[in-house]
Amino acid sequence: MTQTATAPNDQGQQHTESRTDSGNAVEARGIVKHFGETKALDGVDLTVQQGTVRGVLGPNGAGKTTLIRVLSTLIKPDAGSAFVGGFDVLRQPKQLRRTIGLTGQYASVDELLSGYENLYLIGRLLDLSRKEAKARATELLERFSLTEAAKREAKTYSGGMRRRLDLAASMIGRPQVLFLDEPTTGLDPRTRNEVWDEVQRMVREGSTVLLTTQYMEEAEQLADDLTVIDRGRVIAAGSVAGLKAQVGGQTLQVRATHPAELPEMARCLAEAGILGATVSADAGVLAVPITGDEQLTAVIGVLGTRGFGVAGIDTQVPSLDEVFLTITGKSGSAPADKETQA
Amino acid sequence: MSTATYPAATHPAAAAYAEPDSRIGLAGNLRHIGALTRRNLVRIKADPESMLDALLVPIIFTLLFVYVFGGAVSGSQQEYKQYMIPGLLGTTGLNLAMAVGTGLNTDFQTGVMDRFRTLPIARSSVLIGKMLAEACRGMISFAVLISFSLILGLQLKTGPLGVLAAVGLSMVFGMSMVWISMLLGLVMRSAQAVQGVSMIVIMPLQFGSSIFAPTSTMPHWLQTFTRYNPLSNLADACRSLINGGPLAHSVTMVLVWSVAVTAITAPLAVARFRKKA
Q: Pick from B82, B263, B59, B254: which is nearest to B170 by CA?
């Protein structure tokens, strides 16, 4: 205990306890990592709740991979503390490694080994018996549709097969926390969907996933919560829905039966207190920004009582691309604006 | 299963007393080393070309030197066989040692090392697995060279024990060179660079020694170099072990060199490996 008391980051104890309370599978506080002059990570906070998926979104060079490498014990942070599965990245790396799986741009399979040999090797390194390692390798090859290619060297695999083998390799030890570093970068859409299916399946089976991506669609598809980072700093964090709400509400696209009535419709809405409707005559559509369901009802009510013909209504939610552009555009002027945890 | 340790270790007290690096135990380490050695052997099987240098180079060198230069150097090919082949045998360990650096470099470049580093294994087992696989390759290499030499008519004047001793000495020296190879593998940017630099280092050492020709006709400065070149000591020692002759000086020198090289480069290589791995 004395050792702990004198350790530089002895707040680790409290974190270990708070992990149990909060149910966070990953908990990082103030992670800093320099590479020479470059600050790859500049005080990143991040939590992933047990059994959920957090997406880390950011452009190239934002620090996503560095963050994954810190959390998977591949590099040591210069400052800050991090716990994965309750284990300290700095003080308990060996135990921590039993709870994680990593698939990424960097951690890779051995190209000269067959798919089976790759998985068997990792099973043995995770202390499975020969029999267990064999069974687990066979099971995962089956699950990732690699049984036919099991005996072939991994260098003969296509990009998608290799990525699936990589995923299978990271799952041998039934990891509690799975780190996926840009798992679908460079894959064709079909293979990408296969990878997504597998990730969703892992989550259903109880894994916690931390995933980095450059694709908004991927984050939207897989993640419960998002952390947006840029130049080593967290510029926004929260639930996917929460972040969208932060950027702005929905837009109603009202299609009129008689496009000529569009300006009149906009005027009536303004009278009723619903402002900001814009007419796009070419499309025959009235775009109405709204902040909630009550306003949606109000718009329909106003247009109905005034006897306008409405041919259709669509609600348009801002895409994550828009969210990201809005946030990164804003980050220069207001970097402190973050953490809208839902 | 692996997750079973999780609740216990989150207990603050358990966390405080955890000694991460002492948890693997001997049985675990041996299992990991076994699995990684197997991996390297499977790699050799999958890439048979990598066996070529271990198998063909000794044969080519033997043929080339015995029949092209043999008569000119020693007056008779038989005499030259007895002179050169033991020397070549001596350097086999060195050639194998150099493959460790190349393999290590490849593992770092391809990200395989990252995968290993996220697994709960001792990092040293990756290295030991490589060395053991190279030793297996070495055994094949020695067997090929010795069988081929016997076909050519090499006489084992001191019997099989003498040959075994020569093989052993070659391996001892090779093990000390592993650390230099490892340093190169960790510092260089590509496996090709490691190979290139190894060649540049090995070639002059090999030819500037007593392996292929007696040093007495060489210029004075070169004689000085060859006298202190450990490969000359190694060649002389293997010659005496196979043909009979004085052993004390050459064997002692080989052992001194091996210990000295290990003492200096092993800590550097291990420190570099720890830092990088």
A: B254
What does the domain layout of chain A look like in residue ranges? 9-245, 250-316
Task: Check whether A336 has a pLDDT greater than 80.
Answer: no
Asked if the Cβ–Cβ distance from B114 to A121 is below 8 Å, we say no
Among B5, B20, B35, beta carbon nearest to A125: B35
Give the pLDDT mean for A293-304.
85
Query: Which residues does chain B have within 8 Å of residue A86's beta carbon, measured at their own beta carbons?
Result: 6, 9-10, 15
Separation CA B157–CA A96 (nearest Å): 59
* pLDDT at residue A151 greater than cutoff 90: yes
Would you say residue A20 has pLDDT above 50? Answer: no
pLDDT at A212: 94
Joined together, the tokens standing for residue B263 give: 């003492």
Question: Cβ separation of A109 and B31 shorter than 8 Å?
Answer: no
**What mean pLDDT comes out for the span A23-27?**
90
Does domain A250-316 sit in CATH 2.10.109.10?
A: no
Torsion of the alpha carbons at B165, B169, B174 and B175, rounded to the nearest 10: 100
How far does A342 lie from chain B, in Å, by closest CA? Answer: 27
Question: Is A99 in Cβ contact with B2 (below 8 Å)?
Answer: yes
How far apart (Å, rounded) are the C-alpha atoms in residues A284 and A262? Answer: 8
What pLDDT score was predicted for residue A248?
63
Q: How many Cα atoms occupy the beta-carbon half-sphere of B230 within 13 Å?
A: 23
When the candidates are 1.25.40.10, 3.40.50.300, 3.40.630.10, 3.40.50.2300, the CATH number that belongs to A9-245 is 3.40.50.300
Amino acid present at A214:
Q
Model pLDDT for residues B76-100, shown as the tens digit of each residue: 888 888 999 999 999 888 888 888 8
Rounded distance between C-alpha atoms, residue B225 and residue B141, angstroms: 28
Intervals of chain B under pLDDT 50: 1-22
From CA A159, how far away is CA A137, in angstroms rounded? Answer: 20
A169-192: average pLDDT: 89
The torsion defined by the Cα of B10, B14, B15 and B18, in degrees rounded to 10, comes to -130
How far is CA A96 from each of CA A11, A144, B26, B276, rounded to the nearest angstrom? Answer: 18, 26, 20, 19
Q: Do B31 and A127 touch (CB under 8 A)?
A: yes
Q: CB within 8 A of A26, min separation 6: which ones?
A: A46, A47, A48, A54, A71, A82, A83, A84, A177, A208, A210
Closest by Cα among B233, B208, B212, B232 to B221: B208
Q: Give the helix ranges, DSSP H, for B47-111.
A: 49-64, 70-74, 77-110
The whole-angstrom distance between B48's CA and the closest CA on chain A is: 11
User: pLDDT (tens digit, 9 = 90+) per residue, A203-212?
Assistant: 998 899 999 9
Count of Cβ atoms closer than 10 Å to residue A195 Cβ: 22
- Interval A294-309 mean pLDDT: 87
CB pair distance less than 8 Å for A95 and B116? no
DSSP B176: H
Strand partners, A178: A101, A209
pLDDT reported for residue A124: 95
Mutate to test the interface with B, among A112, A156, A182 (most CBs of B within 10 A): A112
Taking only the tens place, the pLDDT of each residue in A244-291 is 766 666 788 888 888 888 888 889 988 888 888 888 877 788 888 887
Identify the closest residue of chain A to B17 by CA–CA distance.
A1
